[in-house]
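Each lists chain and fold; for instance:
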Amino acid sequence: MRPIWTGSISFGLINIPVKLFSATEDSSLDLDMLDSRDHANIKFKRVNEKTGKEVPYEKITKGYLYHDKYVVLEEEDFKSADAKKTQLIEIQSFANADEIDPIYFEQPYYLAPDKSGAKAYALLREALAASSKVGVTTFVMRNKEALAILKPYGKVIVLNRIRFEQEIRNTTDLNLPTVSKGKTKEQDMAEKLIDQLTEKFDISAFKDTYTDKLLKSIHQKAKSRSKKTTEKPMKVVYKKTEDDDLMNMLKASLGGGTKRKKAS
């Protein structure tokens, strides 16, 4: 793996040189856009809107539109905004992981130490594991300040980016039902259904079957390009109960409720 960022973790008076790696990869297929007439690949170009000519990547700079004119920014401008944060993951505090609502979680990364920081890295990793705490930090990556937590995951320390509070939209504009003050019969049955279908979470039981099926279809089409596929699109059929109301559906679910069939 190639690092996407290099810097240091600051932990009290300890400085741990680290490299940042992406912890995830997209399971979806990398599909290209084609011209439907001749299946030629569609290319996108960076074009000067005045001249219409393509601009080489090394000639592109960034600017902010201010009062109808652009203020051009150089790399030094981004660094001078906060030079310290561009190279430092500074742990500002520690917190219990369950205090952070999952809605804030965004993107995980792996942190690996340089050779000179291996001992201090292991010390932080094991202290976090023993305390069951996460380190709360801010840092700058790709010219944008990010909020994150540090937590151990086996032998590695994971940096998980989390969203700032102002990035979460308010729900007041949504048309939502009111919260009931007392427990209804329907709620009691819904809770029983939840209990009936509760099982220990096993991430390995969940597979990206859509991508697998799509790839299989691609292989079949590649083998016989001239033949038309006979497979019909899957239709979603909703079974209606005898009396299509909430209570009867809950009763039907409880009566015939089974555990989710795990993917093979």
About this structure: Residues 5-26+80-165 form a domain with the Ku70; Chain: A; Domain 2 fold (CATH 2.40.290.10).
